[in-house]
């Protein structure tokens, strides 16, 4: 969703900055377009960084022998940096 929002902000900003030839006394539409383009670029970069963080994961596997029954017990743990639960 953040990538889509960044692209939309950048596109609206580009239209305001480059394609729209309208003079309004109380606001500079070209400057608003540049601000929206900068905000869109920041949102795109943050979205890419957050997607890269979300995909990394850590997996741990342990095998022990239960002293009471002599059975082999395997425990698997999987965690992601943004996920605090352990499976």
Main sheet record: 2 strands, antiparallel
Number of helices: 2
Strand order, main sheet: write it out.
1-2
Shape: rod-shaped
Quick structural summary:
Keywords: Membrane, Transmembrane, Transmembrane helix. By secondary structure, the chain is of the alpha+beta class. It contains two helices and two strands.
Kindly describe this structure:
By secondary structure, the chain is an alpha+beta fold. The chain has a domain at about 25-55. It is about 50% helix and about 20% strand. The chain contains two helices and two strands, in the order ααββ. The protein has helices spanning about 1-20, 30-55, and strands at about 60-65, 70-80. The chain has a two-stranded antiparallel ribbon. Helix 1 packs antiparallel against helix 2. The two termini are about 30 Å apart. The model has no long low-confidence stretch (mean pLDDT about 85).
Task: Describe the SSE topology.
Layout: H1 2-19, H2 29-55, E1 58-65, E2 72-79
Antiparallel strand pairs: 1-2
Helix pairs in contact: 1-2
Which keywords apply here?
two-stranded antiparallel sheet, alpha+beta, single chain, 2 strands, 87 residues, 2 helices
């Amino acid at each position: 969703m953040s990538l889509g929002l960044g692209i939309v902000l950048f596109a609206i900003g580009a239209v305001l900055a480059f394609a729209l030839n309208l003079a309004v006394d109380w606001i500079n539409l070209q400057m608003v377009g540049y601000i929206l383009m900068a905000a869109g670029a920041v949102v795109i970069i943050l979205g890419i960084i957050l997607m890269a963080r979300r995909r990394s994961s850590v997996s741990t596997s342990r095998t022990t022998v239960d002293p009471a029954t002599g059975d082999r017990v395997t425990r698997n743990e999987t965690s992601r940096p943004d996920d605090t639960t352990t499976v």
